[in-house]
Write a structure and sequence with these properties.
Elements (H helix, E strand, L loop, with lengths): L5 H17 L15 H9 L6 H11 L13 H5 L2 H11 L2 H13 L7
Helix pairs in contact: 1-3
């Protein structure tokens, strides 16, 4: 089997991590929407098939995540689990210019530690 394209590989990695997080209680897998294919989920987690946007949307919806999160590189799954990132982005997009400017100032003031 050939290597998956980079986006498929990224989505597969994120889906695997997010599904593991969502199914930690052992119940979520049984609450999937009617008609949701476990085979589709398995293929997505393996990265064995290219995924369409519709597939990403179905998987995200089934587990309560925003679809774009499945394509976000190096996203800490703990951040996704409590839904704050998606809500913050939705709030930012709805904010008036002064609110967006305030968020941008806070974001610009943060400097991650330098790795040595």
């Amino acid at each position: 089997m050939s290597e998956p394209d980079p986006l498929t590989a990224l989505a597969a990695r994120n889906i695997t991590e997010l599904v593991a997080l969502a199914t930690a209680d052992g119940e979520q897998i049984y609450r999937l929407p009617k008609g949701f294919s476990l085979r589709t989920l398995a293929h997505a987690r393996e990265g064995s098939h290219s995924m369409t946007l519709r597939t990403l949307q179905k998987i995200a919806k089934a587990f309560g995540f925003e679809p774009w999160l499945l394509l976000f590189p190096d996203l800490p799954v703990a951040l996704v689990a409590d839904k704050r990132l998606a809500q913050t982005i939705r709030d930012y997009l709805k904010a008036p210019p002064a609110g967006k400017e305030a968020v941008e100032k806070v974001a610009a003031s943060y400097r991650p530690p330098v790795q040595q």
